[in-house]
Every structure is written in C-alpha cells, then in structure tokens.
Amino acid sequence: MKNVYILEIIIVTIQVSLFITEVYSYQKLEDPELLERVHKILNTTTEKNTSPKSRAEELDTWRVPEYLLKNYPYYLSGFDYEGRPIWIAQWGKFNLKKIVQDGKESQELFSKYVEKTARILRKSGQILSTPEHPVNEAAFILDFADLNFEQIADIETVSYALKLAQLYADDIIGGTNKVVVVNVNHVAQLAVRLAKMVLGSVFHKIDVFGSNKAQWIPQLRRLFPPESLPEEYGGEKAHKPLFIYG
C-alpha cells in the first residue's frame, strides 16, 4: 500500500511538472500559437447578425468608444505558474470623477465598458485551461500611483464606484485568485477601505503595498514568472503585453 501511495505521488508530481512546462512554453511572447489563442478568445467579434442577440453577444460586438479605451486601459501581461492570466491596470490614472460629472449617458457607457471588461476577464481563463487543469481564476496587479484626493472626496464618484463594485462583486470574488495593489498612498488607502466594505470576503487574496518598490517587487517576482511581468513591475526589459485593451 505504501508503494502504491508513493507511486501516486510520483504520478501527480510528473503531471504538475508537465503542466508547468506547458505553461512556460506559452510564456514566449513571440509564440504565434499563444497569440492566436489570446486574440481568438479575447477579441470582440465583428460579424453582422440580424437575429436577436444575447447580452453576451451584444457585449462582444459592442464597439467601445475610443475615449474609454484611451483613458481606462488594461492589459494581459502573461500567466502565473499555474496558467492563470495576469491582468494589469493603472487605476490611479483613471479619472472616474469625469465619468460621473459628464452625466447619465457617460455613466451608462462606462458601466457597459466595465461589464464588457468583466466578460473579457472571465474568458481569459480559457486561454490555457484544459480539462485536466481547468483555469477559472485570474490574477491582478492594480497600480494606484497618481490617484488624487478629488476622486475620493467627491461623494457622487464614490457612490458610483461602490455601485459598480456591488454589481460585479460576484465576478470579482469568484474569479480572483490573487490581487497585488501597489503604490497605495494615503488617498488610495481610503479607496481600499471603501472597496473592503463591498468585497470583504475576497480581501484575504489581496496584498496592499505602498510606493516602496523594494517591498512589492520581491512579492511580484515570487508570485509571477519574470517573463510575464513588465520591467516596471520587476519583470524583463523586453516584455510586451499579450493583449492590450485600450
């Protein structure tokens, strides 16, 4: 019985090693097979269809306004050691107050953009997922550098942000493996506290760091392969995102 148990351990170890090898084979950004899979899964479809569309189809075919793509971008940086996609967004540069101040239509468009984003993030797990090693979660690096007090001090902006968080709380909680939040200043700390009110059950998956790179770069390197990270987040100088949305 002991020999059987040892054999099972060996088999599992080999399977995990093979999976990690497979994941690493996709880390090369010039790999055409990977790029094809990424864009096939994440790109929106442009096919015309006159039949009634589901909400998912509507989101897939919806062309996001250029100003949203330009001012609120995010990108697929690579994959972690278990094949989970790593998404990076520089939230500190997002001017959510402008969205709110521009009125109802602006807020509705941004909400739809967030809904489309949530769908893209969910779909990204399919890229390296296999029946033997399903991928149902993603990892995130959120950069709060340059977040200013005006974003937090405006009640309407805060209310709108919390409303969005509540709408997509299930997606965030269910689809998140790890979140590393960096460059958190005093203003960003307020934002994190507000988010905790809505997403409390996922906060054990979140690491929050200040602006000292010496503290959070080692954590990013521990969690993620260096070839999956940009240089500014402790990765390689030649790194290029696999998919940029914006």
UniProtKB/TrEMBL annotation:
It comes from the Eukaryota. It comes from Allacma fusca. PANTHER family: SEC14 RELATED PROTEIN, SEC14-LIKE PROTEIN 2. It holds the Pfam family CRAL_TRIO. GO terms for cellular component: cytoplasm. This is CRAL-TRIO domain-containing protein. InterPro entries: CRAL-TRIO_dom (IPR001251), SEC14/CRAL-TRIO_domain (IPR051064). Residues 64-241 form the CRAL-TRIO domain.
